[in-house]
Each structure stands twice: as C-alpha cells, then as structure tokens.
Amino acid sequence: MKKEEKIDELIKEALSAEESKFYDELGEQNLLQKLGEVHKGRTGWLASLITIIHMLVFVVFVFCLIQFINAEATNDLIKWASAGFLCMIFMGMMKLYIWLQMDKNDILRELKRLELQVSALSHKTDK
Q: Do 86 and 60 touch, CB atoms closer than 8 A?
C-alpha cells in the first residue's frame, strides 16, 4: 500500500490544481455512493424503475409467503411455494443487473484514473 500511496502523491504533484481536484473525485466510494451513482446518468431511469419493481415483487413475495403459511391443501402449498420461488428468482435477477451496473461504474472510474495517470506522466516527460 505504501508504494501505491507514493504513486498517488507523485501524480498529484504533477497535476494542475483542477486536474488534482478531478483526481480526488475519482477516489473509492462506499456501497451507498455506488448505488446512488447507478441511479444517475443515462440509464438511471432504468435502475430506478428496476428498484421500484423490485420493491413490488418483494411485496408479492411476502404475500405468497403468508398464503403459503396459511394454506392447508397440498396443491395450494405447491402453488404458493412456486410463486414465492419465482419472486425470489426475479428479485435476484434485478439485483444482479444493479450490481453489474455498479461494477461497470467502478471499471469506468478506474479507466479514468488510468487516463489521468498517463496524462500526468506524459506531461512530466515532456518537461
């Protein structure tokens, strides 16, 4: 980690004030910040829609669970258990989409950091 910190310091020294501020903004984010970034941008509307649908499917899952607990006939148990499993699979797929978007944003952030580092090194070698 010390080597990485030294590299970061060298890069900040080579950057102008504006570039240094931009570099600081590219730092690591916590989970809630990453989730917020998914809901911004070009496909933010889709992530918001998926989140709303996810909540609705969760409500349906809770309803299926209650019906499963209260069912007495075997056919009803199978029906409500199947509906509950379908809800869980659907919620898993929606979570997977959101997590993949978060991963994509992380990769893009790292690419921007690399571009900035290459730019800083090229400015340093030009002088």
A: no
Domain boundaries along the sequence of the chain = 36-126
In tens, the pLDDT along 50-68 reads 999 999 999 999 999 999 9
Neighbour count for residue 87 (Cβ, 10 Å) = 20
Distance (Å, whole) CA 53 – CA 51: 5
* pLDDT tens figures, 86-105: 999 999 999 999 999 999 98
37 contact partners, CB below 8 Å, separation of at least 6: 29, 102, 105
Query: What is the torsion angle, in degrees rounded to the nearest 10, for the CA atoms of residue 119, residue 1, residue 35 and residue 105?
Result: 30
125/119 Cα distance (integer angstroms):
10
